[in-house]
Design brief:
The chain is built from seven helices and eleven strands. By secondary structure, the protein is α+β, with helices and mostly antiparallel strands.
Amino acid sequence: MTRERQMAMAVDTEMLAAAWSDMVRDLCGVTPQGWYVERGNVRASATYADAASLNAVSSMSLDPDLAALDELATELGERGLPWSIIVRAAAADAVADVAARHGLFNRHGVPLMACTKQDAVLDAAEGPRSAVRQVGSAASDVYSDVLTVGFEARQGFFGTLMGGRVLDAPGFSGYLAEESGVPVGTGLVIRNRGAAGVFNIAVVPAARGRGLGRALTARVMTDAFAAGDEVAYLNPSTDGWKLYESMGFRLVETWAMFTAP
């Protein structure tokens, strides 16, 4: 039995997939330029950030409605954004032809990692835990600036993604890590269905290597578990994989994302 299969048996992957899908809906409901449509078991969403993964037609069903997916792909594609189709691996082959018709020929794996409250390794967090603080929408401009630098993205890449009332919305909590009072890292948790989605873990290049990414992740998880969540999940970058594994996360599923070349 593979490690992925063993971990999947310990968590409810159907619930996590539903939580992720609801997270997309909730985010589009509060981000200033958010657009969201549901049709059957398919959802289309746009945040107007300059990232294909943040503007997507998605279905977490193992048997997505291909006609609805095709229709919503047309609607989203007409918005002139970088965009993608995201589905679970079991549905990827069936969706590939639809994606190709819309010019999405590249297929990428999207790992889903999860960590139960019982498996979380939070006492090993390095770095100044006290330097991580929760922030609200009054800090959204600072948060967006640090997020942009932390991801080494061009100015304006995330647009108004974290603006408006996002950081004050129910189920949303944003965090800044600081060194000598200067914000140098970000974190975000979006909670629903008893699960905590961990996002935006980013540290500016000049502050890396000092445990702040670990401290941010630990604070996000600690607060979410204290609020009653039983499992945390995330879609890790390659660079963050070892960090998340050391904190108790394990791969439970791999989804598929189709993008334009």
